[in-house]
Amino acid sequence: MSAAMRAPAGEHAALLEVRDLRVEFPTRRGVLRALDGVGFTIARGEVLGVVGESGAGKSLTGAAIIGLLEPPGRIAGGEIRLDGTRIDNLPQRAMRQVRGKRIGAIFQDPLTTLNPLLSIGRQLIETIRTHLPLSEGEARERAIRWLEEVGIPAARQRIDAYPHEFSGGMRQRVVIALALCAEPELVVADEPTTALDVSIQAQIIALLKRLAAEHGTAVMLVTHDMGVIAETCDRVAVMYAGRIAEIGPVREVVKHPSHPYTVGLMGSIPALDRKVARLTQIDGAMPRLSAIPSGCAFNPRCPKAMAVCREAKPELRPAGATLAACHLYGAAHV
Amino acid sequence: MLEAVEVTRLFDVSRPFLARLMAGEAKRMLRAVDGASFAIRRGTTLSLVGESGCGKSTMARMAVGLYAPSAGAMRFEGRELSSARRDAGLRRRMNMIFQDPYASLNPRWRVRDIVAEPIRAFRLARGSAVAERVAELLVQVGLSPADGQKYPHEFSGGQRQRVSIARALASEPEFLVCDEPTSALDVSVQAQILNLMKGLQERLNLTYLFISHNLAVVRHMSDRLGVMYLGRIVEIGPAEAIFSKPQHPYTRLLLEAIPDLEMVGRARTPVGGEVPSPISPPPGCTFHPRCPLAREQCRAERPAVTRVGDVEVACHAVAQGWG
Predict the structure, then answer these.
(1) Quick check: A270 and B198 CB within 8 A?
(2) Is the predicted ipTM greater than 0.85, yes or no?
(3) Whole-angstrom Cα Rg for chain A
């Protein structure tokens, strides 16, 4: 809550560092590689957006970081470091300590995140007491403070209410309180506003942004809504078929995208302030995991595909003010 | 072409009869749509926007006659829709595209049978002409005739929505109701479907009633726009006029609330509150608990419709100029 903790992105060393992350799903017909060499960093107090269409691997990246990959999915390579320490190879028990205390998680559907059989106060107090050395009474006071902070009216009266007594927007506020109450350093928010109406969505985004700034929490915001990203994030990573296609400051990625996929993606979003006769469309659809094209996975849909795109996987290289994984930028061959 | 006059639709949400009798409760009615009026001209698109529970989908269903209005009238070319439904000739001329392309296609039918069903049902073709027509429709929506052999699960979401559109077009309709046709799709695929729908409209002179919660999509698609709140149309008029100068406080709130690419790093001032329950809506103007302009009159009287240019607005503040 101290303003001193508010620091501009980049000044501090990275809090979260993901390097060359690979996630695989062994199946009867061979191993599917769902994430293939994903790497990025998030600094304290920074909001990193991760966008992409369904199946791009954005939620999977979030799940890998919080250590909640659904088996048979497994981390097959790479590293995840939180403040310098590796967390991708921790045993279950130790990871459970990290998750909750140091990493908070917010999921899409607030109804399935909350336990319907416990009052919201019970859930908050339990979470607080698991991670912080507080008495029952102190934890309860803190829970009330958190509910007030996330904007639940009459928090003191409503703390003993059950999840079903709240509306969708209010429930998502409770979930945010639950994710933040142990004062984690990193919050992974997976589509936190997708299930909500626009006017509520605006309230939740503003809340998340304010809390992250006030507490110096790093946020990884996974969503498919570019509008949300544009408004909330400092930097954004665009994912396609299990890889990062482009990453950079949000303004640059939105206004001057480098990767042809990002260009297409931005053009296909209908704008509010102007009307165009036809939206830019990217023909085709994202490939299935079992049939990822060789070379750059985007090459069959890319208007600028060259021979090299079918042969070599492009690495992230400087392209304008962003980094793009595209053969159009930098040396063609590795 | 389609006209809604003061239509209202109630749903009975009372507890079961016996339980209600024991508890001595009155019947509880939910007003999904409350006195909404609009008209759509041939070859144009009217969009209805609003948040969940505002009655958009109920309105869509009434527009094709799947629900009958509890009060008021729904007319298709001047004929009462409730009687027109019995007329197969009229029924053929309207169709619907649904939101979820995973739920609206029969998983056990091949695509060619799905698309042929309306053709057979209305006896529009027989024998080998059916297959020809199906192939033609599939090409029209950007699929290949060979795709008719496949089952719905073999297609992606966007392609399934193309199949739904082919089926909706099979009866050669003039009027299509599209209930959130792209909200289940990814943006790049959404762009493909929106472009397809616009192209078809121009080529076939279709009339659309387009239902969506996504204002940017609506702006792209519509000629006219209606904004709904708790079952009422609070503002209706030419889409461009509403987007450039929204009158009703709710419309302004909605436009303000949308995250947009242009708003990089914008600090927003979110408006509080949520949509109240339509079972017991607030008296007077239903928006007054969230409205920054609300006065005593708004809590007591339901606002009448005022015209501002081409736009019709139901708001005391706009009518009396303290907005």
Answers:
(1) no
(2) no
(3) 21
